């Protein structure tokens, strides 16, 4: 399949009102408690079972000028639904907090200070799709991810390099850079972000014509599960992803044993397997194409041989990044901060890491659990 055929042009939302005042969000973190992307489990993502009776609809707007969509909130966390038939889109609102943003910036600084000048530290905060696809009717329910990210970047020290992906994503909003029915970005959005990172890091990068394109048809992701909205269920999309050609690579997986509450109780023996998994049409787990999920550390070795070794510390948004960097680094380590339980400094030094990328969706920077877990990895003795 050609690269051109892999691009699905999105239908732009039509603005139906202008100059609407933004209401103050009383508790910008209430939605994080109710809907936390960090808690999405790959083990049940294939069988979403929303309960329509428990869904909530606080209010609903109807467009009055034949714009062709309606906007309302539904389900856990007040998911915003832009109902426009086959192109229905669902996403969570965003909330920020200046003090928590400052604490997050200090945490990233602690990593850079601890690693010293031999390791280049980068920070990539990824705006969620509410930043680009929120219609005027729903803007009172959310704040701006971009504004919050800019404040965090302004507080980062000189020994941390910010990766500002907003402009890269904004230039492609008419393409499928976010999934309409899932809380993640689409693999195409991750491609543009990876390209931006490679430019800043000064490493080689390949365009999509160096990749094979694949598609999972009839994908309906986590937003159906979290919203319980029939409109989302009835608007499946195509999940496109790309795998690199002509670069030799092996992937070694170390999976973690999980106990009650998905707490890590140990780790299994490392095994080699494919970095990319194939999901059938109609599977709600298609985003797990990348590494199969989060509860594992993955090491990818390539034949690049340029002396650059990257570690990506991430939430699930980061899973879609490594596959575009096989041409860029001789080694890529993918570490999920929620499951890794060793001393991260020991791990990075032992593996000769030259570049550390801390990447995640914008909401994760304002979650106390994120900051605490990252800080604990600097001091743990396991």
Counting helices, strands and paired strands, the structural category is alpha/beta
- Written as H for each helix and E for each strand, in order along the chain, the element string is HHEEEEHEHHEHHEHHEEEEEEEHEH
Q: Looking at the structure, what is the overall shape?
A: globular
Cα-based radius of gyration, to the nearest Å: 20 Å
Quaternary state, please?
Answer: single chain
Main features:
382 residues, alpha/beta, nine-stranded mixed sheet, disordered N terminus
Structural description of this entry:
- With 382 residues, the protein is of the alpha/beta class.
- The chain starts with a helix and ends with a helix.
- Strands 5, 6, 9, 10, 11, 12, 13, 14 and 15 form a 9-stranded mixed sheet that branches. Strands 1-2-3-4 form a 4-stranded antiparallel sheet. Strands 7-8 form a two-stranded antiparallel ribbon.
- Strand 3 and strand 4 (89-91) form a beta hairpin.
- It has helices spanning 3-6, 30-34, 98-115, 130-133, 145-154, 166-170, 187-201, 222-227, 230-233, 344-350, 368-379; strands at residues 60-62, 70-74, 79-83, 89-91, 120-126, 160-162, 211-219, 237-244, 249-258, 264-267, 271-272, 296-302, 309-314, 331-336, 355-361.
In brief, what are we looking at here?
The chain has 11 helices and 15 strands. The protein has 382 residues and is an alpha/beta fold.
Question: What is the topological layout?
Answer:
Elements: H1 3-6, H2 30-34, E1 60-62, E2 70-74, E3 79-83, E4 89-91, H3 98-115, E5 120-126, H4 130-133, H5 145-154, E6 160-162, H6 166-170, H7 187-201, E7 211-219, H8 222-227, H9 230-233, E8 237-244, E9 249-258, E10 264-267, E11 271-272, E12 296-302, E13 309-314, E14 331-336, H10 344-350, E15 355-361, H11 368-379
Parallel strand pairs: 5-6, 5-15, 13-14, 13-15
Antiparallel strand pairs: 1-2, 2-3, 3-4, 7-8, 9-10, 9-11, 9-12, 12-14
